[in-house]
Amino acid sequence: MSGPLLQVKGLSTHFFTQEGVVKAVDDITYNLAEGETMGLVGESGCGKSVSALSILRLIPNPPGRIVAGEVLFQGQDLLQMGDDEIRQVRGHRIAIIFQEPMTSLNPVLTVGRQISEALELHLKMDHKRALERSVELLNMVGIPDAGRRIKDYPHQFSGGMRQRVMIAMALSCDPKLLIADEPTTALDVTIQAQILELIKNLARETGTAVMIITHNLGVVARYADWVNVMYAGKIIESAQAGELYAAPRHPYTLGLLASVPRLDQPRKTKLAPIEGLPPDLSALPPGCSFRPRCPYAVDRCAVEEPPLLEVAPGHTAACWVDVRVAKKTAGVVHG
Amino acid sequence: MVSAQSDGKVLVDVQDLKMYFPVTGGILFQRKVADIKAVDGVTFAIKEGETLGLVGESGCGKTTTGRCILQLYKPTAGKVLFEGTDLISLSGGAMRRMRRRMQLIFQDPYGSLNPRMTAGAIVEEPLKVHGLAKGRELKEQASELLRTVGLNPYMADRYPHEFSGGQRQRIGVARALAVRPSFIVCDEPVSALDVSIQAQIINLLGELQEQFHLTYLFIAHDLAVVRHISDRIAVMYLGKIAEVADRKEAYENPLHPYTKALLSAVPIPDPLVEAKRERIILTGDVPSPLNPPPGCSFHPRCPYVMPRCSQVTPELKEVSPGHSVACHLY
Fold first, then answer.
1. What's the CATH code of the domain at B273?
2. Is B223 a residue whose pLDDT tops 70?
C-alpha cells in the first residue's frame, strides 16, 4: 500500500466565541498508516476530540470552523468534499465511537434498527438482510442471545453492552478507520479491559486502522503502535509507543508519566504533579504554552514558540530544552 | 501518609452493615415487591490515623457504605461504632453534634458546591452551623482554610464557576476541614479530575492527613491511586466485602479472584511491561443487586468457579493475620 491511510496536514479548528477566538486545534500534522493503531493523548480541553471530529467535519458551525489544513483520506481531501460525499464517508469508511454509550444511542429506536440503518444506507442491503447482518455483528461483539436482544432498546443494556452495540454499529460497514473517542472512560475497570481487547482483536481481524483518543497513558501503552501527545491545541510530542514511554522528550509528557501512581513500581510517598492549570485556549501565553507549568523553562520559551522537531529517528518533540541534559542539572538542584 | 498504627485504636467500627432499598410496584397502592441489597452485611474497622481504601466497580455499594457510616442513609441493619458510640442509636440532635467529627468530600466538584454561594461562604457555612466562629473570626478562619488547601484567600469572593475542577475540589476539601473533623469519607475525590491535577489533590490529602491527624475512608475505583494513598484495602463486590488486607499484602499477594482481575485490568503506562503482563479478562457484566446470583455473587464471572460456589455463600475469613478473604478457594 502506497502512502498512509490518513494524512492530516496543518489542521486548525477555531471556535469564534464572545470571549475571543479559541484555538482548539492549532496547526496539527500527523499520518496514520493502514491497519495501525494510534493513540491521541491529552487532558480535557487540549483539543484531542475536536481534532478527531474535524476529520469527519462534525464541528458545530457556528461557533466552530476549520480554518486551515488538509485531511487526506486515501488520497482524497475530506475538507474539500461536498456534503453528500462526506456523508458517504461517515459511518462507512470512517466510523466513530463516542465516549458516552448512554447518550450516543437513540433511546427510542431498537438497537437492531440503529445498526441496520447504516447497512441499508451505505451497503444498500434490504431490511431483512440488514437485520440478519446486525445479529451477526452483535454476536461478533459478544452480546449473548443476539437474535432476541436486537429488539431491545438501549436502556435495556448495561453500559458495557451499550458500548459493544456502538462498536458493532461502527464496524458494520467495514470501515478503514475507526475513531474511538475515550471509548472506555465511562466504564468500569474490568469492563474497560473487555472493550479494549475487543476493539484490538476486531481491528486486527479486519485490518482496520484505529485512532484511540484518551487521557489515560496506560490505555495507550497497551494498545497503540504510535502515540501523539497534545497540549493546548497542538501536538507536542509524537513517537512510536515504545520510544515515547522509554525516552519521553517533552516536559509535559514527562510530567504526565510522573504524576500517575503505577502498580508496577514501588510506592512513592509523594506524587510529582504538574503544577498549575492547563491554559485558557482563548488567551494563550506567548511562546510555548506549557512554559508557565514547565520546570525546565528557559528564557527563550517565553518569546519563541518551539516547533515540532525530530529529536531521534521518527520521534518529534516541540521543546527548546533537551530534557535529558536538563534532568541531570535539575537533579543536582533538588539533591 | 504517616499512619499512627502504633496505638492501633479503632476509630470507626462497622459491623454487619446492611442497607436495603425497597423497590415498589403497583398502580394505586405502592407495595414493596423486592429489595435492592446495596450493602449486604459489611464488616470492617478503621484505625485512628489510617486510610482505608474501599475499592469496587460502580454499583457495588461502596458509596452507599460511606454514606451509611455518616448516617446520611439510615441503615437497614448493623452497627456503626464511632469511638465506641453506636451512631445508629443516636437521636437527631446528638447525631448533628457528632457530625462535626466526620465529614465527606464528594466526587463531583461541579455538583457539590452551591453555585450561588461564594467560595468563602461555602467554607464558612459549616463553621456557622456548628457555632464554631462568628464575625471577624469567621472570615479569618475561612481565609486560613483556603490557604491550607492551597487557594489564595482573595479568591473567597469568587463563585464556583470561576474556579477550575481541581480548585473546586480544593474548596470541597476546605469545607470538610472547616469543623476540624477526625474522620473524612473521601468519595472518589479525584476521579472527575484531569490526570495532572489528580496528583495535586492526592498530595494535598496526604499532607492534610499528617498535619491534622486525619482518618480517611478513601472510596475509589482506581487501584493505582488507592495503593498510593491507603494503608489498608477493602475490595467490595455486589454489596459484600470480597477481601481486606494491608496495602502491601493486597497488591503483592491478592487472593480473591476478583481482586486479581481488578489488579490485572489496571493499565500500566509502559508498553514493555504491558507486553509481558499476564491479564485476566473477566467475562460478563456486574450482576444487578436486585437479583444477585445465588451462592458467591462473583461465581458467574469467576475463572476458578467450583460447584460449591453457586450454592454456598463464602464467609469472610481471616487467612493470615490482617488478611481476610471471602472465597471457597481458601
1. 3.40.50.300
2. yes
